[in-house]
Amino acid sequence: MKRLSQNPWMRALRKLKRDRRSMVSLAMISLVALSAVFAPLISPYDPNGQDPSSLVRSPSSQYVFGTDSLGRDLLSRVLAGSRVSMSVALVTALSGVVLGCLYGAVSGICGGIVDMLLMRILDLLYTIPTLLLMIFLNVLVGRGIKGILVALSLESLCTVARLVRGQVMQLLNAEYITAARALGASSMSLWFRHLLPNLVAPMIVALTFLIPSNIMYEAFLSFVGLGVQPPLSSWGTLSNEGWRGLMSHPHLILFPGAAIFVTMLAFNFLGDGVSDALNPKGVVS
Amino acid sequence: MKKILWSVVLLFLTSTACVRKSNVPQNVLRMPLESDPPTLDWTLCKDHVSITTIYLLQEGLTKQDANLNIVPALAEKWDISSDGTTYTFHLRDAKWSDGVAVKAQDFVYGWKRLLDPKQAAEYAYFLYDVTNAKEFNQGTVKEFEKVGIRAVDDKTVEVKLKYPASYFLHIPAFPVTFPQRQDIILASPTQFAEPPHLRSTGPYRLSEWKHESSLVLEPNPYYYGPKPSIAKVIFYVVKEDSTALAMYEEGQLDVAFRIPALDLDRVKKWPDYRPEPILRGYYYGFNVEKKPFDNVLVRQAFARAVQRTDIVAALRAGKVATKSWVPKGMFGYENAIGLDYDPKKAKELLAQAGFPDGKGFPAVTLMYDSLEMNKLVAEKLQYAWKSVLGLDKIELVPQEWKVYLDTLDHNPPQLFRMGWGADYPDPNNFLDLFTSTSGNNNTHWKNKTYDGLILAGAKSQSPRERQAIYKEAQKLLLEEETAIIPLFQETIEMVVKPYVKHFTIDALEYPRVQDATIDLTAQK
User: Fold this and answer.
1) How many structural domains compose chain A?
2) CB pairs under 8 A between A and B
3) C-alpha to C-alpha distance for B22 and B41, rounded to whole angstroms
4) Which residues contact B415 (CB under 8 A, 6 or more apart)?
5) A244 close contact with B: CB closer than 8 A
6) Is A282 among the domain residues?
7) Chain B residues with beta carbon closer than 8 angstroms to that of A252
8) Interchain CB distance below 8 Å, A52 and B310
């Protein structure tokens, strides 16, 4: 009989591996991620190249996803779009997590007036509906990719900061922290040895949910015209171009829509799986 | 999870299984409007949506028939002096929609209001051919009595012009010159252009206006002409053309205009489909005061790099590619004028301007108003300038229509898209746009020779001479100076239900509702 490791990380990983849904999702995500990374190599055409002789073609062997109204290959555009969509989501989710951690930790550790101030600022941002806030930020910073990055990072920061603050407050009152303090641990070592490791699990879970929601928000902003500007395309801008043809040329909305749908679903399933696996209270079989 | 999935599937099934309703009401015409009319004050109006509505409600001294010929309206007949500068209009016994007689003084009051510097009406320049009208509007003449319009008696209007303008009879056919009721305006200065205050002289009166939603028009009982056949016209405010088409397909509208490009292939097969050519040009303008377009060679290079037939093909509609500015179907049309597609020449020009292969070319902002069609054209051009001239720093910036108009007025970007629809079918209306005093000249291109030519064209009474003058003016505007790149002439693609008869749209893009009838026997 194989000896099972008692390392909680290994245990979580084992649990995750056993969850078929998560594994299929992970495979899907890897596929999308790989195709995004290698898009320039695997794209059959230049995503911005216009062929005036084949406008709005339905999917065929020549154009697998068909072409759009300017004669651009939709498969190449969806691939190029995945680069924009995925990288925007990843960058904003990561920066949101890092900055949010900092913000929440400062708030939780300092407590008192600093905590009050920082949390009220968050509350204020929370009172504004998310999409409205993003549109507002986007207009403020400027349309295009810069605006999206700022808006989505800030939005992710808000979510993460609250989470982290709660965790930190909870941990600070935990008995082992009190014990560590009593043994004369410096605040530095408290932070790095005890608090941070305990934040990793919730942060990974947050990340798996932030990425898909940021993909969706990016798509939304691009859909309403506040996102990336031509000739750059993301799944959102492609959907915006596509929905108008819904009745006549459904392939234009079908493929970018399916790309968003599949990716979102995969991330959400994986997020569920990871969250289950990392939950120490879960049943260990 | 399974439950959710099933409920989604169920939702789709039920939504598509819903019974289609097509209860077409009796003798009512339902039309879409692309926005709520900014104003129905016909003296201060300036946009196509407002004017579309106003043409059903109001009439002037003259009007245009379906072929844009001038026919009598509130003026039964008119005399023109032998030197062509004095017009005497004799009014018929027409009444306002409240039964009050239309008087010559109503015209004088309307024109005074249009020219009043305090009103700052954008279309005030429409009357600049009238003696002292420009001076009064610009404040150099204070007394309105000196302006060349007067009421000889209750039924006679006399107009004096600075010079014989051959197109002048079209001017009083345009809404801004229509009569106004001083008593109504004084009684409700801010509300007179809304029901129930609004008085009309045309075939219809406005019975209801729900802002941002709908307008209801009913026949004007006091109209002098034949009563319109359709008993009620409803305009619905529908901002998305795709939505309007969907409403048409569902039987909620009887006509729809501007079929989205992607739906055209499907719609073209319907018997309802009717493309109509209109006198509206689509162009790209340069701000000639901003670098690098202060250099005429750069402007010419840009114009030479554009393959118009490709653009027209991508729009899928029946637009007509054109490199000249005065539209086809109008006097003065010269299809040979303008810069043709010539990529080799374009590269040479750019090199001569100091940017061989686009090296060192500054970043350029290209703006357009955010309609789907404009975006397609902009992407087409962005690609053309990149592939032909090697310029990859052309940034596309869309803006919402009202904001966009404001930007163009105050700080036009280096490159912008614009359109111009005829207000009257004379080349003066198209070429006057780019004179140095024109309020609508966003290129900031100023050329004394051009201004002189346009004035000479307005004064001349010989068609042959005018044609030669306008040819020269167009050469200057498009070839030698290249202040704009005309791309194509628009057509309006519309669908009309088969039970709506005699419904047409004229070349100025105004639907002729008063001629239409509804075949009540044909509908179900």
Assistant:
1) 1
2) 61
3) 35
4) B284, B285, B286, B287, B293, B302, B364, B365, B366, B367, B394
5) yes
6) no
7) 262
8) yes
The distance of A196 to chain B (nearest Cα, Å) reads 34
Exposed/middle/buried for residue A127 (C-beta within 10 Å: 0-12, 13-18, 19+): exposed
Inter-chain residue contact B263 with A69, CB threshold 8 Å: no
Q: Which residue ranges form the domains of chain B, and what is each CATH number?
A: 2-34+203-254+497-522 (3.40.190.10), 57-186 (3.90.76.10), 277-491 (3.10.105.10)
pLDDT in tens, B202-246: 999 999 999 989 999 999 999 999 999 999 999 999 988 888 999
Q: State whether A230 and B310 contact (CB < 8 Å).
A: no
B314, B316, B396 ranked by CB distance to A230: nearest: B396
**Contact between chains at A248 and B310 (C-beta distance less than 8 A):** no
Asked if the structure places residue A138 within a domain, the reply is: yes
What is the rounded distance in angstroms from the CA atom of residue B233 to the CA atom of residue B242? Answer: 22
What residues of B are in contact with residue A231 (Cβ under 8 Å)? Answer: 379, 382-383
Predicted TM-score (pTM) of this structure = 0.76
Candidate ranges A18-22, A65-69, B445-449; pick with highest mean pLDDT = B445-449
CA distance A168 to A202: 12
Residue A265 touches chain B, beta carbons under 8 Å: no
State whether A143 and B397 contact (CB < 8 Å).
Answer: yes
| Other residues' Cβ atoms within 10 Å of the Cβ of residue B215 | 24
Nearest CA in chain B to A55: B314
Report ipTM for this prediction: 0.70
Please tell me the distance from the alpha carbon of residue B381 to that of residue B311, in angstroms, as a whole number.
8
A215 vs B423: CA distance, rounded Å: 47
Dist CA B262 CA A66 (whole Å)? 14
Q: Quick check: A142 contacting B, CB < 8 Å?
A: no
CA dihedral B360, B362, B363, B366 (to 10 degrees): -120
Pairwise CA distance, residues B17 & B33, whole Å: 30
Q: pLDDT tens-digit profile of B20-58?
A: 444 545 799 999 998 888 889 999 887 888 999 999 999
- Residue A227 within a domain: yes
B263·A55 Cβ contact <8 A: no
Q: At what angle are helices A112-127 and A145-172 packed, to 10 degrees?
A: 140
Instruction: State the CB neighbour count (10 A cutoff) for residue B65.
Output: 11
Nearest to B220 by CA among B212, B234, B230, B210: B230
Q: What is the CATH number of the domain that holds A239?
A: 1.10.3720.10
Does residue A33 fall inside a structural domain?
yes
**How far are the Cα atoms of B37, B58, B238, B239, B481 from residue B209, in angstroms, in the given order?**
10, 16, 15, 17, 47
Q: Say if A249 is an interface residue toward chain B (CB within 8 Å).
A: yes
What digits encode the pLDDT tens for the residues B348-386?
A: 999 999 999 888 999 999 999 877 788 889 999 999 999
* Of B245, B314, B396, Cβ closest to residue A69: B314
| Structure tokens belonging to residue B497 | 């239900």
Residue A134: CB partners within 8 Å, gap ≥ 6? A151, A152, A155, A217, A221
HEC string of B187-213 equals HCCCCCCCCCCCCCCCCEEEEEEECCC
Q: Give the total residue count for chain B.
A: 524
Q: Which two tokens mark B317?
A: 């509609």
Q: What is the largest distance, in Å, between two alpha-carbon atoms of chain B?
A: 87
Structural domain including A158 reads 2-47+61-277
* Cα A137 → chain centroid: 19
- CB spacing of A70 vs B316 below 8 angstroms: no
**Residues 388 through 417 of chain B touching chain A, CB cutoff 8 Å:** 395-398
| Average predicted confidence (pLDDT) for chain A | 84
The residue with tokens 């109001």 is B58
